[in-house]
Amino acid sequence: MLSMKKYILSTAIIIIVIILGGLYLASREDEKAAKKTAKESIVDLFSKKYNRSADMVLVEVGTDTGSFAKGTIRFADKPGGGLWFAAKTAGGWELAFDGNGIVPCDAANKYNFPRDIIPRCIENLNENKLIER
Asked: What mean pLDDT is predicted for residues 105-122?
């Protein structure tokens, strides 16, 4: 009977150690993600969005307030490029817009971009009217 109790106790301790180890490793991954720069995060977003390797995604950050960022994007094997705007949310950086032209007001308003980052936007629901923000 005593050896059965030792076995159960040993098994419980091993399970607890495994769970704590898993939690520790998960928190380390969260730390790594939190330490990524805006540029690294934006490169990752474009890499996933366009199914390109990160070394082919050339991102320049023009403005980074810590909560909002904007810049340019191009792919190493393609001519031309475009603009991008991103907002940092509880889940990390999110692309609000990428491409050419004026940012749709829906994207600017969804993330509540400051006027100095997106001073004007195009209102698609209102005959593509240019809106000064």
From this structure: 96
Q: What kind and span of H or E run contains 1?
A: none
Q: Is 66 left (phi over 0), alpha (psi -120 to 50) or beta?
A: left
Under 8 Å between Cβ of 73 and 98: yes
In this structure, the answer to whether residues 8 and 45 fall within a common structural domain is: no
Q: Extract long-range pairs of 79-87: CB within 8 Å, 24+ residues apart.
A: 84/42, 84/46, 84/59, 85/113, 85/117, 85/118, 86/38, 86/41, 86/42, 86/45, 87/111, 87/113
Tokens read off for 83: 């603009």
Residues 31 and 41 grouped into a single domain? no
User: Are 86 and 94 a contacting pair, CB within 8 Å?
Assistant: yes
- Structural domain of 17: 1-35
pTM of the model: 0.71
Indicate if 81 and 49 belong to the same structural domain. yes
**Res 34 pLDDT > 60:** no
The total number of structural domains that make up the chain: 2
